[in-house]
Amino acid sequence: MPRGAIALPGVLPPLRPPGTVRGGENDRVPRRGHRLSPSDDELYQRTHISLLQQEPSPSMYIDSYNRHGFVINGSRVLGPCALLPNSVVQWNVGSHQDIIEDSFSLFWMLEPRIEIVVVGTGNKMERLNPQVLQAIRQRGIAVEVQDTPNACATFNFLSHEGRVTGAALIPPPGETSLTHLGPAAA
Q: Is the pTM value of this prediction over 0.85?
């Protein structure tokens, strides 16, 4: 056995100190660059996680709509509204003609990023300014413009799929009313 080698009888082949050679080749024993001391290990064990939200929040669903507004997750919202993944806010537009690039600024400021915004323009699908649509798409957000009844159904479908979806909805001016588009209808 080479000088300085340590032998464990019947268990392992003899270990050689670092830097020794066997058969003319440089056969080094692997070394750790850094060994953790007990104080280092205690530091790693002290890491903790703080949860901001204990349970995943339920998806937003549009239960119904009429000429006055919408019922979203059981709550009545009057007038045009913007639906975000976990909240609803009033949308300051009167008709599709009032929609400008700044009308959508809320959607591109959010994290996690909205994948698609569904726009409901009332009883019928109205064309939006192409420059407004282009500005939204340049920020990486897809836009789907539809009449409000179809926009509500599309939003519910995308939300049910788990997509990060937003909606910008103008109530349809007629007496049209659709009840319960929620998860039970899916």
A: no
How far apart, in Å, are the Cα atoms of 6 and each of 9, 11, 12, 29? 10, 12, 10, 13
User: How far is residue 83's CA from residue 72's CA, in Å, rounded to a whole number?
Assistant: 9
Instruction: In whole angstroms, give the CA distance from residue 112 to residue 164.
Output: 8
Asked if 71 contacts 63 with a C-beta cutoff of 8 angstroms, the reply is: yes
Q: Is the pLDDT of residue 146 over 60?
A: yes
| Identity of residue 174 | G
Instruction: Say if CB 57 and CB 68 are below 8 A apart.
Output: no
Per-residue pLDDT of 23-72, as tens digits, reads: 555 555 555 555 555 555 555 555 545 555 555 556 789 999 999 999 99
By the 8 A CB rule, do 69 and 78 touch? Answer: yes
pLDDT at position 109: 87
Phi, psi of 45, rounded to the nearest 5 degrees: -75, -15
The sign of the torsion formed by the CA atoms of 64, 125, 102, 155 equals positive
User: What beta strand segments (E) does the chain contain?
Assistant: 6-8, 12-15, 21-22, 25-26, 62-66, 69-72, 75-78, 81-84, 87-90, 116-120, 142-146, 165-169
Note whether 165 and 120 are within 8 A (CB). no
Coil/strand/helix, residue 133: helix
Tokens representing residue 105 in the block: 């600024």
